[in-house]
Amino acid sequence: MNLAPILPGGTLGVLGGGQLGRMFVHAAQRLGYFTAVLDPDAASPAGRVSHHHIQTPYLDAQGLERLAATADAITTEFENVPAAALEALAAHRPVAPAAAAVAIAQDRAREKAHFASVGVACAPHAVIETAEDLAAVSDDLLPGILKTARLGYDGKGQERVTNRAELVDAWGRLGQVGCVLEKLLPLSFECSVIVARGADGNVVHFAPQRNLHRHGILAVTEANDSILPTVLARRAVAAATAIANGPEYVGVLCVEFFVLHDGVLVVNEIAPRPHNSGHYTIDACDVSQFELQVRTLAGLPLVAPRQHSPSVMLNLLGDLWFDPADGHERTPAWDAVLALPGAHLHLYGKEDAKPGRKMGHLTFTGPTVGAVRTTALQAATLLGIEPF
Ligand code: ATP
Ligand code: MG
């Protein structure tokens, strides 16, 4: 990648127009950049707020040409972007992260091989491509979770299986595509680490945050300086740094971990971009994950971010837009929530609320861990989110 920085006044591009692209655009614009988004949807969250919105499919040659002509450097907001699109752009402009690094995160089998190559432990697993592979899996991996190797997200493309008959059925339901069978591990809790790595090899990170998933979707992230035992936090940061250094990654990378009942740390998966578990950094840190994405893309210096307040982030899923009593559509009580101290509401501008759809998030900051938990729990009650 070109090491001369693209200074504010330049144009930064992003493939994909979802909420992550939107928050990237906000961060870039605040720093004085112009922005370009490529997304086929006229109403995409990022397209609506960007200076330029190229409305074509991700593999449309003309769309990609226009993006390369408009933007000085280009990033992506989702890992399932076709590698060919990133490669086409990279022929004209700096692209970060590179297609080769994104390809690791696109495939669970490659991802796990990468973890092994940098010496970071993940769940015991088997790669399944054929019926013979399926028949040969060790009994040790059951009960387990069968996950499609590609294109899974938010718990989609996964089935829990307890025996071989269920495993065969589940593989059939998943379309007999390439899969990974992972042993079901006894989780004590989950956490993640977000690192940013520059083209010069400099790496900065946020402290690990603790994540609660419900139905395979992130529900709550808590971040404060006592959320993890120090030794565990240090190990998680070292593992995330090794994972980013391996492929000479450039950009923001999130590494998700499991902490097992016996305290052992195991890596789950990576996302080659800012992550839902890092949204709190917008309001609780002096530099957000999205500003770090801008800085890595533009080749600007990276400074270690500092968290100035304990925080709790609640995901706002489309379910909240429906009255549980009668199923009628409603507008959540934002006015009541905004009356709570330290409430920071982020809505992504999506028109249709659907159950499980990420519509926004709410971050609470406060003077103490106790205060911030109390207000976040009050908001959860007001909105109809299960307590945590
Ligand atoms: P994401 O939206 O984070 O990309 P995903 O669909 O890729 O999610 P995973 O992160 O693989 O899915 O799994 C979703 C959740 O399922 C995890 O956060 C964890 O709670 C649970 N889970 C996944 N794998 C295992 C495992 N091997 N043992 C126990 N629980 C697991
Ligand atoms: Mg996950």
Keywords:
alpha+beta, binds adenosine-5'-triphosphate, nine-stranded antiparallel beta sheet, binds magnesium ion, 388 residues
Task: Give me the secondary-structure topology.
Blueprint (H helix, E strand, L loop, with lengths): L10 E5 L3 H12 L3 E5 L13 E3 L6 H10 L2 E4 L6 H8 L8 H8 L1 H10 L7 E4 L2 H5 L8 E5 L9 E4 L2 H10 L5 E5 L3 E11 L5 E3 L3 E6 L2 E7 L6 H16 L5 E10 L4 E7 L9 H4 L4 H10 L12 E7 L16 H5 L4 E5 L10 E8 L3 H15 L5
The structure holds adenosine-5'-triphosphate and magnesium ion (MG).
Can you give me a brief rundown of this structure?
This protein is of the alpha+beta class. The protein has twelve helices and 17 strands.
Care to describe what's here?
With 388 residues, the protein is of the alpha+beta class. The protein contains twelve helices and 17 strands. The chain has helices at residues 19-30, 61-70, 83-90, 99-106, 108-117, 131-135, 164-173, 230-245, 281-284, 289-298, 334-338, 369-383, and strands at 11-15, 34-38, 52-54, 73-76, 125-128, 144-148, 158-161, 179-183, 187-197, 203-205, 209-214, 217-223, 251-260, 265-271, 311-317, 343-347, 358-365. The strands form three sheets. Strands 9, 10, 11, 12, 13, 14, 15, 16 and 17 form a nine-stranded antiparallel sheet that branches. The protein has a four-stranded parallel sheet with strand order 3-2-1-4, sandwiched between helices. A four-stranded antiparallel sheet has the order 5-8-6-7. Strand 9 and strand 10 (203-205) form a beta hairpin. The chain starts with 10 loop residues before the first strand and ends in a 5-residue tail after the last helix. It binds adenosine-5'-triphosphate (ATP) and magnesium ion.
